[in-house]
Write a structure and sequence with these properties.
31% of the residues lie in helices and 25% in strands. It contains 13 helices and 21 strands. It has 479 residues and is an alpha/beta fold. Strands 1-2-3-4-5 form a 5-stranded mixed β-barrel. Strands 7-14-8-9-10 form a 5-stranded parallel sheet. The structure holds flavin-adenine dinucleotide and nicotinamide-adenine-dinucleotide.
């Protein structure tokens, strides 16, 4: 006997749970299957983002930032805090509490919206049937759906020279759970995870070496911002070694020996822990029966069109498992779009305005095109820049590193990209996203009133600076 649903979603991460909630809100009888369990074996909702990604990493980034503030910067502003120390188990336990609150919140949202949560594994069969194997040991059930949304997410990439071990060579999940600060920490990959988790443990006292294969630092970011960020992060103690090829990592006598090559030859370092953070890959193992009708693309992602439709009728895929940036908010927007399209509405996801944030301190955030991309495309553009060192609010907060850079089309003045290195860059870039969604020009942004004193004024001033009209800095000569 099969159970019937309007929609079955596989995966309850930010892409899947958002899709399920929106489907239920739109009146569809919806079930969402997820197989994740926590360290105690309890079923949890929220996927990578809530359990092992965005949220726990930010809990540790915020806690470690506060430690650095108290230890290194309180004295500058007239606060004598005495000796400050770190209680790693407590910090980790608090992070777990934050995670628990939020994953429990998804259960509450499912209940409140009438989504049926099914804890176990789902596999797509032919004709929109889904085989559900519950965690509780019950028999496999066949669910019949009018529509299926696949949102199984992604998992860390592993590399042969550095095979993971129980607790010394770890991926990002292991790096969120160290029970003490390693004296020496190696990180393979100077991408988002390498910089964020490298920063956490560096702030807490670890000596951190980051080995990055590419010669260029953060090639996806604006060159100027990447250059300034590297300088600041290096100044904080991250030893970032570009152009390195890791050739081996082996546990010997309780430590990890890492060998790598660069242009100067072969090297070896010994570290107490090694984090492998070289990217994530789509998670499609045991997801599809051979006759499901869904295909993969050449990189192993589920193949979808712009509307997240797979090759099987009424089967959609969203989030990290499909092309595009592996970001929670991108997956959420796709999930909501699919739910609304099933209900007969016609929304689209605007992939041109996906914000990117790296939660180092200062934060690095951007939306739209970089200057190097525009140059390569032969586009004409104008730039406005404003340093936080000239922001009253940043000075008041003793947090003045970085800048805002606004790039606008030379002819139409339409904003093409905004790049922020600085305090609260993640919040500031949201204003740039809104501006770009409404096709604003730099002049439009300049004409809007911003509260004083705020960090956001740096965006306002940079927008004014595009035409040489910034007030609180001397403009480069323009008409
Ligand atoms: P996931 O969140 O991976 O969820 C997929 C779910 O589906 C999982 O629970 C999985 O168990 C389940 N599943 C898979 N297959 C099956 C199956 N066959 N049956 C049943 N269930 C199944 N992104 C940001 O935007 N901001 C950040 O700050 C950020 N920080 C991050 C920090 C770290 C350390 C990591 C690792 C990632 C971070 N990300 C961040 C990325 C973000 O976590 C992902 O982009 C996001 O979780 C993807 O959402 P998703 O719903 O596609 O998949
Ligand atoms: P990434 O793609 O951001 O960075 C991986 C880095 O590892 C790259 O710089 C790459 O050149 C390097 N690399 C690859 N193979 C290597 C090797 N063999 N030796 C040395 N370096 C190597 O991937 P990530 O940092 O693992 O993050 C995975 C995904 O999770 C990203 O797509 C990211 O979008 C997402 N994420 C987002 C956030 C955020 O939004 N703040 C935070 C964490 C993760």
């Amino acid at each position: 006997m099969s159970e019937n649903y309007d929609v079955v979603v596989i995966g309850a991460g930010p892409a899947g749970y958002a899709a399920a909630i929106r489907c239920a809100q739109l009146g569809m009888n919806t079930a969402c299957i997820d197989k994740s369990v926590d360290n105690d074996g309890n079923a949890v909702l929220g996927g990578t983002c809530l359990n092992w990604g965005c949220i726990p990493s930010k809990a540790l980034l915020d806690a470690s930032h506060k430690y650095v503030e108290a230890q290194q910067h309180f004295a500058d502003i007239g606060i004598n805090a005495g000796e400050v120390s770190v209680d790693v188990p407590k910090m980790i336990a608090r992070k777990e509490e934050v995670v628990k609150g939020l994953t429990g919140g998804i259960s509450g949202l499912f209940k409140g919206n009438g989504v049926t949560a099914l804890h176990g594994t789902g596999k797509l069969l032919a004709n929109r049937q889904v085989a559900f194997k519950p965690h509780d040991g019950g028999d496999e059930q066949i669910l019949q759906a009018e529509h299926v949304i696949l949102a199984p997410g992604s998992v860390p990439v592993e590399i042969p020279p550095a095979p993971l071990t129980d607790d010394l060579i770890v991926d990002s999940t292991g790096a969120l759970n160290f029970d003490a600060v390693p004296e020496k920490l190696g990180v393979i990959g100077a991408g988002v995870i390498g910089l964020e988790l490298g920063s956490v443990w560096n702030r807490l006292g670890a000596e951190v070496v980051v080995l990055e294969a590419l010669e260029e630092f953060l090639p996806m970011a604006d060159e100027r911002i990447a250059r300034d960020a590297k300088k600041l992060l290096t100044g904080q103690g991250l030893d970032i070694r570009l152009g390195t090829l890791v050739t081996g990592a082996e546990v010997k006598d309780g430590v990890v020996q890492v060998t790598y090559q660069d242009k100067d030859g072969d090297h070896e370092i010994t570290v107490d822990k090694l984090i492998v953070a070289v990217g994530r890959r789509p998670y499609t193992e045991n997801l599809l029966a051979s006759d499901s009708g869904v295909n993969l693309d050449e990189r192993g992602f589920l193949y979808v069109n712009d509307l997240c439709q797979t090759d099987a009728p009424n089967v959609y895929a969203v989030g990290d498992v499909v092309r595009g940036p592996m970001l929670a908010h991108k997956g959420t927007e796709e999930g909501v779009m699919v739910a609304e399209r099933i209900a007969g509405f016609k929304p689209l996801v605007n992939y041109e305005t996906v914000p990117n944030v790296i939660y180092t301190h200062p934060e690095i955030a951007w939306v739209g095109k970089t200057e190097q991309q525009l140059k390569a495309d032969g586009e004409s553009y104008n730039i406005g820049q404003f340093p936080f060192a000239a922001s009253g609010r940043a000075l008041a907060a003793n947090d003045t590193q970085g800048m805002v850079k606004v790039i606008a089309d030379a002819e139409s003045d339409r904003i093409l990209g905004v790049h922020v290195l600085g305090p609260q860059a993640s919040e500031i870039v949201a204003q740039a996203v809104i501006s770009m969604e409404f096709d604003a020009s730099a002049e439009d942004l300049g004409l809007i009133m911003f509260a004083h004193p705020t960090l956001s004024e740096a965006l306002h001033e940079a927008a004014l600076g595009v035409a040489g009209h910034a007030i609180h800095m001397v403009n480069r000569k323009r008409k």
